[in-house]
Specification:
The chain has 5 helices and 14 strands. The chain is of the alpha+beta class and 228 residues long. Helix 2 packs across helix 3.
């Protein structure tokens, strides 16, 4: 983040993260300019330049990679492929055989490695100027697991905390985690992550820690510093 700030150096940050956290990671983008000259990003998977136009950077404009960045972009794409190949056998085979690797093949390999928690794709941008936010959100969809692809376990309080595998579908009983409480102009807001079931206004839900039942009040859709 903050590639528009003075002294921005994404490669230094990436190397520090690798050294301190000791994880397999690589950039999936490279910036077009830095600091005051930060203009956009190059997608190393699709090999496309992205620029963010409009008053709030909301319009993503795609174009070819700038000619003066071609060599640098290909070096970073090769680095990305090498790092992912170390943790994904399918990509490693294609890489070692010197086969051309398509965007779809690379994207699939990144997803497999990310879901297996063997690789971390690194995104770049400037959140303040809304540059790089849209590709980051697309990356959540492209590379992070769907809730149905991972197993979530709950503890049944009525059966001596017996482990129960959650289906992750709306059809089951409500299982949710209140991960944040906030006092605002609407009173206390409770942020929930729902693992199974659905929640509706007027429903009664049970706090497993206290055993008390709580009536669900109207929901709010948070938007920046306001709630709707």
């Amino acid at each position: 983040n903050k590639l528009d700030r003075m002294g921005a150096d994404p490669w230094k940050v990436l190397n520090q993260a690798r050294a301190k956290l000791r994880h397999q990671s690589a950039a999936v983008q490279v910036p077009i300019g830095l600091e005051e000259e930060f203009e956009g990003l190059v997608d190393l998977v699709e090999l496309k330049a992205l620029k963010f136009e409009g008053g709030s950077g909301q319009e993503v404009v795609t174009s070819d990679v700038p000619s003066n960045m071609q060599d640098f972009v290909m070096d970073k794409r090769r680095e990305l492929i090498e790092v992912v190949s170390e943790v994904d056998d399918q990509l490693a085979e294609a890489f070692l055989n010197d086969e051309p690797i398509t965007a779809n093949e690379l994207k699939a390999a990144i997803r497999r490695a990310t879901v297996a928690r063997k690789f971390i794709p690194v995104y770049m941008g400037s959140a303040f100027k809304n540059k790089g936010v849209q590709p980051l959100l697309n990356g959540v969809l492209d590379y992070l697991p769907c809730p149905l692809e991972v197993e979530n376990i709950a503890l049944d309080q009525n059966k001596s905390e017996e482990k129960v595998s959650l289906s992750g579908t709306p059809a089951g009983p409500l299982v949710a985690l209140a991960f944040k409480l906030e006092e605002g102009r609407f009173g206390q807001l409770t942020y929930l992550r729902i693992y199974e079931g659905v929640i509706r206004k007027g429903d009664f839900i049970q706090n497993v820690n206290t055993g008390k039942k709580i009536k669900v009040r109207p929901r709010l859709n948070p938007k920046s510093q306001q709630g709707r």
